[in-house]
Design a protein that fits this description.
By secondary structure, the chain is mainly alpha-helical. It has one domain: Orthogonal Bundle (N-utilizing Substance Protein B Homolog, Chain A), CATH 1.10.940.10. It contains seven helices and no strands. Helix 1 crosses helix 3 and helix 1 packs across helix 5. The two termini are about 25 Å apart.
């Protein structure tokens, strides 16, 4: 499975976890892989890394989101899909240190597929703001 497809599967799993907060995320990973018939070890490993990283760093990731949205907005106003996309993007850019251009491009593509009409611009803007804040522009 390609990295893009792995990222899309990780997004779907993160979204499921975002919706079903009361269920153990490790249980959800196993159930998701079973339902989606995901057996490739590299895909499972990637999804585990993303989910565990987002769960472990959730508080600081949400602070990043809050800091980079309009002052009259709160995180609770953001759709679950957009929040999930932002968490995925922030984790990969800030914590996994993946090239921000690749991550932003792919997360924006996911926002076009799963989000509403405004998701693309919103997600792109927040992630671009985070890249600038972390001064990652010269690193990639």
């Amino acid at each position: 499975m390609s990295r893009s497809k792995n990222r899309e599967e990780a997004f779907k799993l993160l979204y499921s976890i975002q919706i079903n907060k009361d269920t153990d995320y490790k249980e959800q990973i196993n159930l998701f892989c079973e339902i989606e018939n995901i057996k490739q070890e590299s895909t499972i490993s990637y999804m585990n890394e993303i989910v565990e990283g987002v769960v472990k760093n959730n508080e600081s990731i949400e602070k990043e989101i809050e800091y980079n949205i309009k002052s009259d907005w709160t995180i609770s106003r953001i759709s679950k899909i957009d929040i999930t996309l932002l968490k995925l993007g922030i984790y990969e850019i800030v914590y996994s240190k993946l090239p921000y251009k690749v991550v932003i491009n792919e997360v924006v593509e996911l926002s076009k597929k799963y989000g509403d009409d405004k998701s693309k611009s919103f997600v792109n803007g927040v992630l671009a703001s985070i890249v600038k804040k972390h001064k990652l522009l010269d690193d990639n």
